[in-house]
Every structure is written in structure tokens, then in C-alpha cells.
């Protein structure tokens, strides 16, 4: 079974600014700093922020499961402002999902705001199909809101 869940979040920052934060390693730094208690701590395992980069997200205490996931950047498209990561260990992989990919697309809304389209793509065998209800975009929505607020405040103090 394959499927996806998607969420659009409007942020009050131009798409070029949001993309510069989302495209590489800065996103992990912002998430750790601003949303560490909600989403978790992000660490670089290997890479420079381009395709092939591996990051580890350690969830906050009390999160069910192993408490972490490791993901690999598989697409970083500067022209289309799309980044796709794939979970390679932990997270939903531990629940039997064959594949979990996060697709982040930054869409220009107007000169002062943009849309962060966050999509979770999944593959799971029919025996575990009931676990699809566990898939949510809520953490990606929180991330978009937190990063947008951070970038907006950073812009206003610059």
C-alpha cells in the first residue's frame, strides 16, 4: 500500500528566505534551537547539506519507539525549491513501513509570504495497513510555523 498525507502552511517570509533555511543544514540547527523540546534534536551524521547528507533526529523524552530516526537527503532541487528525505533507520521504519519519505516544497505566495507544502509519502504492506493512521503531518506543520516565526523575527532584527 502506498499513500501520502500533505499539509500547506503559510509563513510570513519570502520563499527565497524560507528555501535558504530548508535546503541544507540550517533547518536542523533551527529545529534544534527553536523546537527541540517539541520535535527533537537534529544532528549531522555525514554530508554537506546536499544529496546524500544523513541527519539524525533524536525525539524528545517520552516519545514512543526507539526515540530517533535517521534520514538521508535524496533530492535537493534549488530551481523547484523541493527537498525530499527518506528515513533509513528508526521512526516509522521500526513500525514496519517499507518506505517513509518527507517532501518539503517551498511555494512563493507573494513577495512577503510563502507556503511550505509538507508531504509524508509512505509504503507499507497490507498486513500493517492499519498503522497508516499513525502517519501525521502535524510535526511538519509545527516545524514550518516555528521556522517561519524564527526567520520572520530574524528578518525584523536585521
UniProtKB/TrEMBL annotation:
Keyword Transmembrane helix on entry: no
InterPro entries (UniProt xref): Bet_v_I/MLP (IPR000916), Plant_def-hormone_signal (IPR050279), START-like_dom_sf (IPR023393)
SUPFAM superfamilies: Bet v1-like (SSF55961)
Keywords from the UniProt entry: Alkaloid metabolism
GO cellular component, one term: cytoplasm
Entry's Gene Ontology BP terms: abscisic acid-activated signaling pathway; alkaloid metabolic process; defense response
Family (UniProt): Belongs to the BetVI family.
Protein name in UniProt: Bet v I/Major latex protein domain-containing protein
Organism per entry: Erythroxylum novogranatense
Organism phylogeny: Eukaryota, Viridiplantae, Streptophyta, Embryophyta, Tracheophyta
Amino acid at each position: 500500500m502506498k499513500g501520502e498525507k500533505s499539509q500547506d502552511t503559510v509563513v510570513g517570509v519570502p520563499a527565497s528566505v524560507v528555501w535558504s533555511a530548508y535546503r541544507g543544514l540550517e533547518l536542523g540547527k533551527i529545529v534544534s534551537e527553536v523546537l527541540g523540546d517539541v520535535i527533537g534534536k537534529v544532528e549531522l551524521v555525514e554530508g554537506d547539506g546536499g544529496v546524500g547528507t544523513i541527519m539524525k533526529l533524536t525525539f524528545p523524552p517520552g516519545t514512543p519507539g526507539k526515540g530517533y530516526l535517521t534520514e538521508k537527503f535524496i533530492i535537493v532541487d534549488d530551481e523547484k525549491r523541493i527537498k525530499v528525505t527518506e528515513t533509513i533507520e528508526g521512526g516509522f521504519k521500526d513500525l514496519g513501513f517499507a518506505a517513509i519519505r518527507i517532501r518539503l516544497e517551498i511555494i512563493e505566495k507573494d513577495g512577503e509570504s510563502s507556503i511550505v507544502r509538507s508531504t509524508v509519502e509512505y509504503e507499507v504492506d497490507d498486513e500493517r495497513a492499519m498503522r497508516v493512521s499513525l502517519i501525521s503531518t502535524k510535526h511538519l506543520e509545527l516545524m514550518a510555523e516555528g521556522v517561519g516565526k524564527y526567520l520572520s523575527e530574524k528578518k525584523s532584527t536585521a
